[in-house]
């Protein structure tokens, strides 16, 4: 039932959007239908899938060009998030992904960009989103 509701929602979002607005990506429409608990499950599943894909690439193709690209563009961020899960709750990452997709300009952006946002902002110093933004404005925070 939830699957059918999600498809219905995505279809109607595309059909009724104003032409001057950025269209919402299907992943964002799906993300917004989930409960907080389901978002945590989805996020952990995504992280695990990226990790498993990287491990499979290493075993099948070695450390070639594709494996290097995948590590640099997807897996490195996921490894950084996994490292942070020892001291940060997964729900904090879910909150930052929610914050990313609350911005109208970002509703068409891919999920890995929302994860990069979540990773950077949860690591930045400061209590408010503005303090965090100011503290990281000139730095690129990458996983260690």
Structure description:
With 144 residues, the protein is mainly alpha-helical. It has one domain (2-136). It is 71% helix and 0% strand. The chain has seven helices and no strands. It has helices spanning 2-15, 26-33, 36-61, 65-84, 90-102, 111-123, 129-136. It is globular.
Distance between the termini: 42 Å
Mean pLDDT: 80
By DSSP, the count of extended strands is: 0
Helix content: over 70%
Q: Strand portion, in percent?
A: under 5%
> What is the count of DSSP helices, taking H or I runs of 4+ residues?
7
State the low-pLDDT regions, or none.
140-144
Order of helices and strands: HHHHHHH
Number of domains: 1
Broad shape: globular
What structural category do the secondary elements indicate?
A: mainly alpha
Biggest pleated-sheet summary? none
- Report the radius of gyration as a whole number of Å: 17 Å
Descriptors:
mainly alpha, 144 residues, disordered C terminus, globular, 7 helices
Give the helices and strands, then pairings.
Layout: H1 2-15, H2 26-33, H3 36-61, H4 65-84, H5 90-102, H6 111-123, H7 129-136
Helix pairs in contact: 1-2, 3-4, 4-6, 5-6
Care to give the gist of this entry?
By secondary structure, this protein is mainly α. The chain has helices spanning 2-15, 26-33, 36-61, 65-84, 90-102, 111-123, 129-136.
């Amino acid at each position: 039932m939830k699957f059918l509701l999600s498809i219905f929602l995505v279809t109607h979002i595309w059909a009724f959007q104003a032409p001057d607005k950025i269209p919402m990506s299907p992943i964002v429409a799906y993300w917004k239908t989930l409960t907080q608990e389901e978002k945590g499950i989805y996020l952990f599943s995504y992280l695990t899938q990226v990790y498993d894909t990287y491990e499979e690439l290493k075993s099948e193709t070695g450390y070639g060009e594709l494996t290097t690209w995948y590590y640099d563009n997807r897996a490195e961020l996921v490894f950084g998030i996994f490292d942070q899960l020892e001291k940060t709750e997964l729900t904090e990452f879910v909150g930052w992904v929610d914050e990313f997709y609350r911005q109208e300009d970002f509703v068409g952006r891919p999920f890995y960009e929302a994860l990069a946002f979540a990773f950077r902002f949860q690591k930045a110093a400061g209590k408010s989103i503005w303090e965090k933004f100011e503290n990281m404005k000139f730095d690129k925070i990458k996983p260690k």
